[in-house]
Design brief:
Elements: E1 23-25, H1 28-36, H2 39-49, H3 55-62, H4 66-78, E2 82-85, E3 93-96, H5 98-101, H6 104-117, E4 125-129, E5 134-136, E6 138-142, E7 155-157, E8 163-165, H7 189-197, H8 200-210, H9 216-223, H10 227-240, E9 243-245, E10 252-254, H11 256-260, H12 262-275, E11 285-287, E12 293-294, E13 296-300, E14 312-316
Antiparallel strand pairs: 1-8, 2-3, 4-5, 4-14, 6-13, 7-11, 9-10, 11-12
Helix pairs in contact: 1-8, 1-12, 6-7, 6-12, 8-10
Bound molecules: zinc ion.
């Protein structure tokens, strides 16, 4: 494999840019995406936020094949996002756990992104914040400063054990190609975003762009991804409008749309750190230009308050499935 040109010292290298030989990124986001980003998995969590509890309810509202639903519910129980309440049969219900409820800010972040970039006309849902009694959209901001998250204005500080030895087994390449069909029966801005990034490889490539990588050989070096698979994922991101190719600057660069996806992506990182990867240990710090460590949160565009599922109601701008 060729060594990326910048590894040879042509320009200063960010400390989070390249893994040392034999190591990979220990990434909260990539483990999170394994848990959350399968589209059906996400849609089941979303219906749980909408109040669905029973197997038949999920099945009816999503028009999801029975076997697929069973399989995803097992996955969600195993990953402690849903818990089963009651015994078998009619009484069996699924409830969100604390970890499941904590997915809510990510949902709002993806909804904001989808409303802004992937929706023509009126957004599918109008959100109401009960705390300030206002209609709102979610904003992803740094909790410490209130500034909107901006991938271009942030430095990444990594701990000593940030890089982990590359696993012996090769990464599962479950899908050589990814078409990203929308599966749900509700129009959903978050699902539209997932139709692009809800695929492990696409997600990992996008993440590399946020870590300052732009070139085809850099992606190959960092991810050990097969060139054919990488080409396909780059075309998807390009077609969806997240990246553009620039001969002048070399390689692939995030568009404004791609940069805006940083908000929901960084919320996934926080969720992963809290619940999946290292149980509240830092995977890396975001440091703002003034040197402050900052953390992302989803807030109400009207009052600036933190958002949680209990304080938000909504109106559908479409006829909901019964
Ligand atoms: Zn508010």
């Amino acid at each position: 494999m060729s060594v990326p040109r910048t590894l040879r010292g042509d320009e200063p290298v960010r400390e989070d840019k390249y893994p040392p030989k034999g190591y990979v990124r220990h990434s909260a986001e990539s483990e999170t995406i394994e848990v959350l980003a399968d589209t059906w998995t996400y849609l089941i969590i979303r219906e749980a936020f909408f109040g669905a509890r029973r197997f038949a309810e999920f099945q009816r509202k999503l028009a999801i094949p029975r076997a697929t639903l069973s399989n995803r519910l097992v996955h969600l129980e195993k990953n402690k996002i849903l818990r089963r309440v009651g015994k078998t049969g009619e009484h069996k219900q699924y409830r969100l756990t604390e970890r499941g409820i904590d997915v809510y800010p990510i949902t709002l972040g993806m909804m904001w992104f989808g409303d802004k970039w992937m929706c023509e006309g009126t957004p599918p849902l109008a959100l109401f914040h009960k705390t300030c009694r206002s209609w709102f959209s979610a904003k992803v901001v740094w909790r410490e400063t209130g500034q909107p998250v901006d991938a271009k204005k942030i430095f990444i500080r990594i701990p000593k054990d940030y890089w982990i030895p590359r696993p012996k087994k090769t990464i599962r390449q479950r899908r050589a190609t990814w078409s990203g069909d929308v599966q749900g029966r509700r129009p959903c801005s978050a699902e539209r975003m997932l139709s692009v990034v809800g695929d492990r490889w696409t997600f990992l490539v996008l993440q590399e762009l946020f870590h300052g990588n732009h070139r085809f050989d850099e992606f190959i070096h960092n991810l050990e991804i097969a060139p054919g698979i990488l080409s396909g994922r780059l075309s998807n991101l390009h077609r969806a409008g997240f990246i553009e190719k620039s001969d002048e600057r070399g390689g692939y660069h995030l568009t404004q749309m791609g940069l805006d996806s940083y908000g929901p992506m960084i919320l996934m990182k926080v969720w992963g750190e809290r619940w999946v990867v290292r149980e509240n240990q830092r995977n890396f710090d975001c440091v703002d230009p003034e040197g402050r460590v900052v953390n992302p949160v989803a807030v109400c565009s009207s009052c600036g308050g933190l958002l949680n599922a209990h304080d938000v109601s909504y109106v559908c701008n479409y006829t909901p499935p019964t």
